[in-house]
Amino acid sequence: MKEYSYYGFNEFIICAGYKQHVIKEWFADYFIHSSDVTFDYSHGKNEMTVHNTNIEPWRVTVVDTGLNTMTGGRIKRIQKYIGDETFMLTYGDGVCDVDISKLVEFHKKHGKIATLTAVLQEQQKGVLDIGGDNAVKSFREKNMSDGVPINAGYMVLQPEIFDYITDDRTVFEKEPLEKLVEQGELMSYTHRGFWQCMDNAREKLMLERMLETNTAPWKTW
């Protein structure tokens, strides 16, 4: 959210589910936790004075989209909050230093329903060249040229996307995106910079260390 705010986007809708109440409580306390406050009980009242605050100019809507709802269903449930506007969609488990302004500009120019950001996923092991006799002919370490493009999770969508989603059981990455591909309505914005998901404890520690040492490429704020 801080990354989006850096590019001037300050209105957010969070598709919550598991422990959604914790997310709501975090935002409910965010103003107080980010401010200098005086609590005055001296006159038998509970008076609060805010002296200074460091919060962002955000408007945040947290929506309980269900505990077991699939990804497409969660998007469908926020339709009434989106209305007829173009909107961006981002997964909550990946960080990226993509230029969001350029991504939006790219989307506006091609005029299609959807744009996803594509990054190259590195191979996880060394690369082997194996001959017909099963002998290893060459070996080298992985590099970016061995990778395949994957969806980085930074998407721009037109409101027509809601017509491609049936109900809570719809997986966004299946029927909706596949149908967009068939119709030529899905475009790819290639990003050659940093992207990293957080799928396990090792990746969590790595990303936290990058923030702590001020070496996080996605930290634009």
How would you characterize the overall build of this protein?
The chain is α+β, with helices and mostly antiparallel strands. It contains seven helices and twelve strands. The strands form five sheets. It has a four-stranded mixed β-sheet. Strands 1-4 form a two-stranded parallel ribbon. A two-stranded antiparallel ribbon has the order 2-3. β2 (35-40) and β3 (47-53) form a beta hairpin. The longest helix has 14 residues, at 20-33.
Helices and strands in order:
Blueprint lengths: L1 H5 L4 E6 L3 H14 L1 E6 L6 E7 L5 E6 L6 H7 L1 H4 L4 E4 L3 E3 L3 H11 L3 E8 L5 E4 L5 E5 L7 E10 L17 H8 L3 E5 L4 E3 L3 H12 L9
Parallel strand pairs: 1-4, 7-11
Antiparallel strand pairs: 2-3, 5-10, 6-12, 7-10, 8-9
